[in-house]
Amino acid sequence: MAKKVKISKKKISKESDEFISTTGKVLNYAFENKKKFLVVTISVLVLALLFTGWRFYIQKTEKEASILYYKAIQYYHSDNKSESSAKDDKERYNLALKKFKDVIERYPRTSVASMAFLYSGHIYYKLDEFDKSIKSYQNFLKKIPSDNPLNAFAYDGLGYAFEAKGDYKNALIYFRKLIDGKEKPLSKLGYFNVGRCYEELGEKGKAIETYQRLITAYPNSGYAALAKEKNNILKR
Known about the structure:
Elements: H1 9-32, H2 34-77, H3 89-106, H4 113-126, H5 130-143, H6 151-164, H7 168-180, H8 187-200, H9 204-217, H10 222-234
């Protein structure tokens, strides 16, 4: 049979006194520092309420911005005059542009604000406002990561906008990015436009070399066929 361990009353009394003493110290500290405890408690509650309120605000603004953004998209892509009050394409583009600008101004921190800059760039180009087009594309590039595949569409737009201004050197910089970047959805067009810019700059040899690179990289594409025709003319 296991031997019973006898605990003296004195020991129990001592441990009880120690527990009561420790608890008393904690309670005394809490009482003496009740202001601090109150401030900390209120601060935690306020932060929790602020976080909840901020999340609700973000969700609300994202929803409002998205509704306005998709309305702008409808104006931009719709060529059916019965679907809008626009009399012609120019008026339709201006209606879309106004809504994209509203998204940028009213909801600058939303996820669709950067896309509004991209579409604004497209519209300004169609309206022959090339400086505003360039600025919109550049604002778009500032708002998104450098490895985002949508960058290609801004580079392409910048290339055409600078080309429309007769600034072939800057157009060349952006068209080359369509070839040099990791994502290459517009590479074939990039090669062809780089070749054209070299032609405009009088750099015949570089134009021929670029067209040949296009033919080698994409031999069965329509751009390769155009590049062959270009080279045949340039080599005469």
